[in-house]
User: Fold this.
Amino acid sequence: MSVHTEMTGAHTDDAAALIADARERINALVRERMTVSARIRQARITLQSVMATAG
Assistant:
């Protein structure tokens, strides 16, 4: 059993590689979502500031 199979709980190296790849893709999606959320939050703050100044 390799280190990867022990880390993932997979029974084979192929399964461990598949799990590791899926985890990397999921992590990338989570990072992307966090970035988008931060940009949306900043846009809302900016819009609220502009509206407060204009009103």
